Amino acid sequence: MMQQKTPRVVIVTGASQGIGQAIAETFLHHGDIVIGCAFSALSNAPQAQKMLADWPERFFYHSVDVTQTEQIKQFISEAEQRFGRIDVLVSNAGKNVFKGIDCDESDWSRNFDLNLRSHWYLAKCARPALQKSRGVILIMTSNHAFSTMPGCAPYNISKRALLSLVQSLTIEWGPEIRTVGIAPGFIDTDGNQAWFDAHPDARLAREKTIKKHPVGRIGRPEEVGELCLYLASENAGFIAGTTIVMDGGRSAIMQDEDDA
Fold first, then answer.
1. Per the similarity annotation, which family is this (predicted)?
2. What torsion, rounded to 10 degrees, do the Cα atoms 42, 45, 51, 56 define?
């Protein structure tokens, strides 16, 4: 992969594992500087430790609770002060809050603080730096924003709201800042494996899920990273204000055979 001459400064939230880790590694392989954060302390984040060892001069890690606005503000401020610029913000951190529509108020609040408000506030704090660099914001939503399953509220509701956040950031902050959403479906991460493991037969649950994808498999985290790399490039300069679904064709199916 060809590296660009001037490394960009890229913020990746939720970078300690799964999709966030893959996104961070993709930009690092491309030659960029990545400042990652996640809730976990570094001592509890072995993947982040490995990235620090592999890219000691271009990867930096912070423990940040993105539900706490003061921590977000400090994280973004320190990143800009250290490097003098921010070129790309990949707002990825989030978590499944599958409690159902009758969830407790505490579950509702926790979900919206993490899966909606944090994305808005990260963008708000990074805006001055991104305006200077004419940068890019990438917001990770989910295919649950378009169609969902029983028991997945309030998660799916916040993910749907992110579609509107992407639109508003685009029309109010453009043309200096370009914003795009990404909506992955089933990606082969520890989080999705935990969902399979919650079934009586995890192997069977995985096989049934794979059969529901026209491409015949579920996604790989590095594929999300490659999409982020493209969307952050000048080649994607006319893509803005929209959310791209990458779900292996899952959402194209009107009805599953075993549901008929």
1. Belongs to the short-chain dehydrogenases/reductases (SDR) family.
2. 10
The vertex-125 CA angle with 121 and 127, nearest 5°, equals 110
Describe the crossing of helices 202-211 and 190-197 by its angle, rounded to 10 degrees: 110
Residue 131 lies in a domain: yes
Cα 256 to chain center, whole Å?
A: 28
Tokens linked to 56: 């000691």
* pLDDT tens track for 16-68: 999 999 999 999 999 999 999 999 999 999 999 999 999 999 999 999 999 99
How much is the CA Rg of the chain, to the nearest whole Å?
18
Angle, alpha carbons 248-250-256 (nearest 5°): 145
Residue 20 lies in a domain: yes
Answer whether residue 148 is part of any domain.
Answer: yes
| Residue 107 amino acid letter | D
Report the alpha-carbon distance of residue 188 to residue 225 in Å, rounded.
Answer: 13
User: In whole angstroms, what is the distance from residue 36 CA to residue 163 CA?
Assistant: 24
